[in-house]
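Example record

One chain of 219 residues, shown exactly as stored in the release files.
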Amino acid sequence: MKILENLWQVGGAEYTTGEDAAVYLARFGEKAVLIDAGCGNAQEALFENISEVLPPEVKIEYLLLTHCHYDHTGGAEAVRNRYGCRIVAHELDAVYLENGDSTVTAADWYGARLKPFKIDHQIKAQEEIFQIGGDKLTAHFCPGHSPGSVVYVTQIDSNRILFGQDVHGPLEASFLSNRENYINSLKFMMGLNADILCEGHFGIYQGKEKVSRFIQSYL
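Predicted structure tokens for this chain:
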């Protein structure tokens, strides 16, 4: 689904399989990034969706993981194998992916086991900027839903895009969720003043007022 010129949703319940969280694709000239990878149960459908909108000469440089949960990360290794991209995650969630922890990553919820995989780049700071072609995308540490949850912000045309993913939570002891951190992260996201929110399970919100209202509803 085309959201804007150079921004698409290529995975998720309506586009790949019901277990998948949303997968977003953003193009920056001759480079592109994927935000999350789904659970890995419908890889060919995901690859076909990507090929429909992305010319073969455009390289997917990064797979940016928002957090460690299986519905966002189970397909990560297959994506890297297909496109040669680098997998990025926060260090506080990377440990559970590299160790194949099926409890903290919620793979257990899906009746699956997470196969351990390497994270190519671990975010360690509160904020990190990635250069994608001639543009930039900023990662912000927003813990709560998971210990190492991250949101990504970029500008496409005149629109400030927030890849907030699981704004809605949930908070769960087995995920090592933290309520205070989650609330602080929601407040931080509201302050980003995004024009478009790309959420993990509840769709795409366009317009500052709709974005703010959605985030506020979970406070």
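Notes: The longest strand covers residues 135-141.
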